[in-house]
Design goal:
Elements: E1 15-17, E2 20-22, E3 27-45, E4 51-71, E5 75-79, H1 91-103, E6 108-114, H2 125-140, H3 147-157, H4 161-166, E7 170-173, E8 178-181, E9 189-194, H5 201-206, H6 218-229, E10 239-240, H7 243-249, H8 251-262, E11 267-270, E12 277-281, H9 284-295, E13 300-304, E14 311-313
Parallel strand pairs: 3-10, 5-6
Antiparallel strand pairs: 1-2, 3-4, 3-14, 4-6, 4-7, 7-8, 9-12, 9-13, 11-12
Helix pairs in contact: 1-2, 2-3, 7-8
Amino acid sequence: MARHDPSNRILSSGVNVDGKMRRSNGMLTFRTSAKLNLFLDIVQKRTDGYHDIVTILQPVAIWDELKIERIEHGIELRGDDASISWGEDNLCHRAAALILQEAGVDAGVRIDVSKGIPAGGGFGGASSDAAAVLIAVNEIFSLGYSRERLAEMALMIGSDVPFFIYGRPAIGTGRGEILEDWSGLRGVWVVVVKPEVSISTTWAYNNINLPLTREIDTDKLNSVLEGLKNLPEKPLESWNVFTEPIVRNYPVIGNILQGLSEEKPLIYSLTGSGAGCFALFSEENRAKEVAIRFKKRGFFVKVTQPISQTTRLIQ
């Protein structure tokens, strides 16, 4: 599998959208996608407090929308989800502060976020938004940073953020920032389900029991990768290391996973460290039938599809 080519830039001194180059006029509007972890395992806890993982990452068409605009000074961040902190601890604010300071820019940005990706579900919404801020500021101020450099800054913000800089289906190792291309899902429909509960990533990592060191289970990983190539012809069993502790502490998530399994999907799993779950189906009508049943139980439910790029310029 080939590594991502860092010289293949999305945005740097111009915006590449559907093969066309556009210039920024001081404001950009992006749609930023969610992700699913089709496989997730932990190798070890590192001496720096982070964890080495191996995961298969797939973007899906659930979107946040961000408007990023140049202002005279400071960082102004607003969002339409009252359950989320929009202060200096927000990843969007941290991303803007980092790249502006790195570049020595004597100006600021205003960021408006409309949330479509549910928070606390393991869908990577905060990381996706932070990556879009880095990309946008790089463009608005014509900083000329390469994708590789943006990914280095992204890792300072969060382990998932580099994936959204590269923005394509990938196998992630290290903290998740070492990314290798894979072909991604095709020809399937995704049902996403999330209960009202949200799960802190920190809590999830603190509540999993691991030996000091583990080897990557390459047989299990390769089995999943090979099985994904055969979808939708043949169902597949996935793996998420967080499933057991999450289900033990949050029975509602166990009920969702059990309910999804009874629908005979091609694959079903927890995503990230929860609380979101997903299932894949070969037919849209079948996916919609399943979604209706879960909506009646009061959950956030979305029927969507895999996509090949996480970040899209819309204006």
